[in-house]
Amino acid sequence: MADTAQQTLKGVIEALRADKAVCELVDGRAYSDVPDGEKFPYILVEIQSRPFMADDFSGQLHTVRLHCYSDAPSKKEALLIRAAAHALLDRGEGRLAIVGLVKSEQAGVWDCIREDNGKVWDGIGEFELTVM
Prior knowledge:
Blueprint: H1 5-18, H2 20-26, E1 30-31, E2 42-53, E3 58-70, H3 76-89, E4 101-114, E5 121-131
Parallel strand pairs: 1-2
Antiparallel strand pairs: 2-3, 3-5, 4-5
Helix pairs in contact: 2-3
């Protein structure tokens, strides 16, 4: 079984950067490693992976967590970014260039919190991607 985490992470980031609705909000700023001094808003993409096996096939389940960061006074912008990403990724198998992708759907944590500095909102959303 091949490790598909890197290609999955790359495919998600490329899709976020290419999507018109997401780009209108973050201007293509979607990263797995945020550059120092990056301006807001932007999306940080994280991934956790675990294997699965059956009698005749195997693959990986990837939990992709988006952090939609905004320094706007209210949480509205962070929630709009998260909603645009959700529209792209939930059941978005045909919009993601990931070899072997079987399923992409909303899962796990959905929240919007103010960071400890009191100035930045973090709109969090998780997706489960199955790759064989």
